[in-house]
Specification:
eight-stranded mixed beta sheet; five-stranded mixed beta sheet; 26 helices; globular
Length: 673
């Protein structure tokens, strides 16, 4: 009676057989390949019939490395939590290949998916379950509900199933949160539910969901009395959005600002006149968004629901100006539901999210250019392919295409004084560049006349144009920086004042600018770093860049954020062996411990302390430095990565991950032949 039934081992054995076949498929002769494929499909069909007789709670992830249910205290869970980067990439490649198999229309490949769909779920989802303690049986029920009947469905039927799955997910999550409701406030319960929205259903890029949701909520952003400023770009869009919002706030406007991601609290994403959204407003408005999704059958994602929540908040606050920062790209981003922005701004174009936006600067530029609207002006920053974007603006019928130089002229002062150097490489000071983009946008807003304009659907808008903004207001407004963008503070320690820099430089390009900015601002001071990164970044290069700015590894403190995407200490150290001599504590991996230790050493040696890397470590670091600001509770933080399963903020672009995607794509293409 105490022995475990052999069924899971059978499923794992069959799954491992399939993996070995995929790995050696190119070496097989054609006829042997078809024999093995047919045999595998037949075995999986038999296993499927057997598994139907077993309980759903015993279903295992297809590519899991173990044969037991994940538990937050089990050895298997601990092993997965300390997974190396190579294992992560292998899992990413397998998941990607399996999604390709699942979406294939080839009969044999489709049969393989149908046979094993009841036992499949991505191992990354399993990891989320172990971290946020969602019952495994609940996840298994969603994994089993994919396409078990084996019938080919129409697009409409698939959409109906998608909506029903979304509703089932929401009902079960709501029941789960209510079951635990005694320990949570209403705000915590709602935000937890929001974060877990993406957990069981795939995200489809597009505007269909947000368009339906916006209409269901009364189209608040179609109000002709609201001036909308839409900002996209690879770098700088958050800074430009903030600078414009602060300048217009100083000029007397009531300004709504929507940005992402947040640093310490989810409510930072939605601000009115620099005040973040209150918990009471979230409790009042978020249920309305959930209800609209439920009533109208809208399988909205985390980012779409958050965008709709921001729209409602701005409308209820009677904001006269709304500044929207895109989440990913532009053309298919949820913020692009706005029909007639007063101006569209593209700050810069670089290689990012290449799996989604395209693998060239030109393709990415076209995606960002999707926010350009007919009859509306567009402003483009200096680091962008102007030929591509100018043609895009012409095709869309934009009222004008402007560069910063067109509005402000060539800045003679922006020469050597605004350039940073890193070895032989010359870099620009992006904050000054972002300030010029913001100033140019404000001048365009003041100059344009917006009476009697018509949108694409023949709705006439009498949008209010921006009144005068003084030069002093513009200078003060554009001097602001977002949190943790070379944020300089003074901290007292043992009666000594320590300069602390906080910056979310989390990839090689951003770290290059941070290192050069530090050398330019504090040339004679020794630096001490507290650093941590996301697992999808080039950890080796990041480690080398940080090491290049300190006397030795002892001036570095390596930390690990408590987030699903955070790289663990072992991964960071393995990527750059010299970091083995740095400061870290495997027993106490808390960020607070290393920040406090670094402060002591910086005070003793008169050094500048730099806290940098992933945004996921900043909330705890800021608290350790004495910041008194709203911060999400632990019960929210533990699910804060759930929305990133397929969310608009989680698409890896590191070279290693792209190589893994390429290898997985090749394997899946062989299977589909």
């Amino acid at each position: 009676k105490n022995k475990k039934p052999p069924l899971p081992n059978l499923a794992i054995a069959i799954g491992n057989l399939q993996e070995r076949q995929i790995g050696t498929i190119e070496k097989q002769s054609s006829h042997m390949w078809w024999i093995q494929r047919a045999t595998t499909a037949y075995l999986l069909l038999i296993a499927f019939q057997i598994l139907l007789l077993s309980t759903k709670a015993f279903t295992l992830p297809k590519f899991s490395t173990g044969n037991q249910r994940l538990d937050s205290t089990s050895p298997l869970h601990l092993e997965k939590m300390n997974m190396r980067t190579s294992a992560h990439l292998k899992r990413v490649a397998r998941d990607y290949a399996w999604r390709r198999i699942r979406n294939s229309h080839h009969p044999t490949t489709r049969a393989m998916f149908i046979a094993s769909s009841s036992s499949y779920s991505s191992s990354s989802s399993s990891l989320y379950h172990s971290r946020i303690r969602v019952p495994f049986a609940l996840h298994a029920s969603y994994s089993s509900s994919a396409s078990m009947d084996g019938k080919f469905t129409t697009k409409e039927e698939e959409e109906e199933k998608e909506v029903e799955l979304w509703r089932k997910t929401q009902r079960d999550l709501l029941a789960l949160e209510e079951e635990r409701g005694q320990a949570y406030t209403t705000y915590e319960r709602l935000v937890r539910r929001l974060y877990m929205t993406n957990l069981f259903s795939p995200v489809k890029m597009g505007l269909r969901n947000i368009e339906m949701l916006h209409r269901a909520l009364g189209s608040p952003m179609d109000d002709p009395n609201i001036t909308i400023i839409h900002v996209a770009g690879t770098n700088g869009k958050g800074s430009v959005s903030l600078k414009i919002a602060k300048s217009l706030e100083l000029a007397g406007h009531k300004v709504g600002l929507f940005v992402s991601p947040h640093v310490a609290s989810f409510r930072e994403r939605m601000q009115v006149n620099s005040q973040i959204m209150s918990e009471e407003d979230v409790v009042s408005l978020l249920p309305k968004v959930f209800t609209a999704c439920e009533d109208h059958g809208i399988p909205a994602t985390f980012f779409e629901i958050t965008t709709a929540l921001a729209f409602l908040h701005f409308a209820n606050s009677n904001a006269s100006v709304v500044v929207l920062e895109t989440g990913l790209g532009g053309r298919l981003d949820a913020t692009n539901v706005v029909k007639s922005p007063s101006i569209s701004i593209i700050t810069s174009i670089g290689l990012e999210h290449t799996r989604i936006l395209g693998d060239t600067i030109e393709l990415i530029a076209l995606e960002k250019g999707g926010i350009i609207k007919e009859g509306r002006p567009v402003l483009v920053g200096p680091n962008a392919p102007h030929g591509v974007l100018r043609q895009c603006a012409q095709e869309k019928g934009a009222s004008g295409y402007y560069t910063v130089e067109d509005i402000l002229g060539v800045d003679e002062a922006m020469g050597e004084g605004d350039k940073l150097t890193l070895g032989t490489k010359v870099l620009h000071d992006y904050d000054k560049e972002n300030a010029r983009i913001s100033k140019a946008a404000l001048l365009i807003l003041q100059q344009q006349q917006q009476n009697g304009e018509t949108t694409n659907d023949d709705i006439t808008f009498q949008r209010r144009h921006i009144g005068p903004v003084t030069e002093e207001q513009i200078e003060e407004g554009t001097s602001h920086r977002p949190p943790c963008r070379f944020e300089e503070i003074e901290v007292k320690k043992d009666n000594k004042s320590i300069t602390v820099i906080l910056d979310v430089a989390h990839n090689p390009q951003a770290l290059e600018h941070l290192v050069s900015k530090l050398e330019s601002s504090y040339p004679s001071k020794i630096k001490r770093f507290v650093v941590g990164f996301s697992s999808d970044k080039d950890l080796a290069v990041c480690g080398q860049l940080v090491l290049s700015s300190v006397p030795g590894p002892l001036n570095l403190h390596i930390v690990e954020a408590s987030h699903p995407r955070a790289a663990n200490l072992e991964s960071i150290i393995d990527a750059e062996p010299r970091l083995r001599e740095s400061n870290f504590d495997q027993a106490d991996r808390s960020i607070t411990a290393q920040v406090e230790y670094a402060l002591e050493l910086a005070a003793e040696k008169d050094e500048v302390l730099v806290v940098c890397g992933s945004v996921f470590l900043m909330a705890e670091a800021r608290e350790a430095l004495g910041y008194n600001e709203p911060r999400d509770s632990d019960c929210i933080s533990e699910v804060a990565g759930s929305n990133l399963k397929h969310g608009q903020e989680n698409f890896g672009t590191s070279d290693n991950e792209k190589a893994a995607m390429k290898a997985a794509s090749k394997a899946s293409s062989i299977l589909s032949k």
